[in-house]
Structures are given as C-alpha cells and as structure tokens.
Amino acid sequence: MENELFTTLDRAAGRTAAEPGLETLVCGLLAQVARGTRVLRAVAHPLGFYCLPVVRDGALGVCVHVFDPATAAGQREIHCHSWELKSSVLYGRVGNLRVGVHDEPARPTHRAYEVISDAATGVDEVRPTARLVRWEPLAERTSGRGETYTLGAGEFHATVLPDGTPAATVVLGRTVPGPLDVVLGPVDGAAHRVVRRLCGAERTARIAGEAARRISGQYGTGPG
Known about the structure:
Elements lengths: L1 H11 L8 H15 L7 E2 L4 E9 L2 E8 L1 H4 L6 E2 L2 E9 L2 E10 L6 E9 L4 E21 L4 E4 L5 E4 L6 E9 L6 E4 L6 E4 L1 E2 L2 H15 L9
Antiparallel strand pairs: 1-2, 1-14, 2-3, 3-11, 4-12, 5-9, 5-11, 6-8, 6-10, 7-8, 7-12, 8-13
C-alpha cells in the first residue's frame, strides 16, 4: 500500500499549480494526520523545519517538510544524502543551492562528517572522516508553489528560505547503494550526537492541519 502511495505521488509531482493533483493528495494525507487516522509524529529537524514522515517503505520514503522562518533562519548546512530526491513546493518559496566540494588537504575550510541515523531512536551519530575539503557555490534555484526540483544521491547542497516566509515541500526519496549521508563541519571538530526531537500528537496535528490549510489557501497563524 505504501509503495503504491509513493508511486502515485511520484507521478503527480512536477505538475503545475493549474493541475493540483499532488496538492490534493498531500492535503488529504495531512488531513488524515490532523485527524489522527494516519498515525505519525512530526520530527523537529535540527535544520529548523518540521518533518512529517508519511511513507516509509524500504528504500522509498515520502516526507512533508514544513519550514518555520523563525527557526530556519541562518540554517544553511551543506550536506549530501544517500538517497535521490524529488522535492515539490506546496506553498511559499524554497531555494536549493548546489555546492561543489573539492578535496583540499593542505588548506581546508571544512571536514566531511558521516551521518549515521537511527530512525527508531531519532539519534544521528555524526562522525568525522579523513576527508578535508573546500566548497564553492554552483547554482541556486528558487522554486515556488507547484514547482519541482531534483537532486541526485551524493550531490552536496543547502536549502534556504529566500523570502523568510513560511513554506512547505513534499519530498520523495529513493535510497541508492553507495553514497553516504555527509555533512560539512569544522576541520577540528569531534564526533557528536544530534537528537531529533519528536513532537507530541497534539503538536503534530496542529502542524499537519496548518500546512493543509496553507496548501488550500486558508492561512492561519503558524505551525507552533
């Protein structure tokens, strides 16, 4: 069933705002979460957005990311994923900055850290690697409602909110063999843990309900 839902959303992604198939589907999923008929808990991501994991099926996953400008401001972490993604903007505007990362052992600005995530506990183990690098911005694309962008596994990027206003995306991910989850950090940094805070049922319902209202044009007061 979840595999079929992924396929349905994948087919709908990328349509224009004039063809609201994807928006209608996601609104329906969020309404189920708000009512409690689709049981999940929102995760307060360290980068300043709420993640609602609506599909987890082996290598496939679908999350709705709800960006709160108050907490996302200044969060521009450069990272890459072990999965390829397709991200469609549901409301607001979201910028995707592609980044080139080059080995630079002599005069590095950053070190690459492997991120090992445990979905069951919500803990990320962040471990320094031997790779010393420099990075440079490549191209930044800002997408608005109804627009979709893709990113390959292993491609470095950063997500930004160019307007400082609320935004949400639905992200379809497919894990592929080989690439690691990597984040750039201090050259002399140490291994550490990051705990992703799980929201309660009431807060999850508010986040989902507010996102659904914003998608349908009925704006409220925010996800808090």
